[in-house]
Specification:
Layout: E1 19-21, E2 38-40, E3 45-48, E4 61-64, E5 68-71, H1 79-83, H2 95-103
Antiparallel strand pairs: 1-3, 2-3, 4-5
Amino acid sequence: MKLDPCTRCGACCAAFRVDFDRSELASATPRGVPDAFAVPVTGTTMRMRGTDEARTRCCALEGEIGMEVRCTIYDRRPSPCREFAPYAPLGIGDDACARARRRHGLLAL
């Protein structure tokens, strides 16, 4: 059984801003993103805490990038996270995945 490279990588969670609609918050929908994990950007847009810092790292990410990571809100993560690099778990990256991995000294999938 091949291990999901995303559970070892996490580079995307420490490379990009994650903006999503306010309707994805837990206060708006069951099983939504915990409100404390997001900051407002506009009246309708939220951003995952930590993804707009100089040293980008999502507040929901645990572990060491490139070694072993996990999303602490995986089942509640926002749509940009659910839609990012859909084939990465199969070991097939895309340009954004490769850019994130390069930022952390990792080879593209």
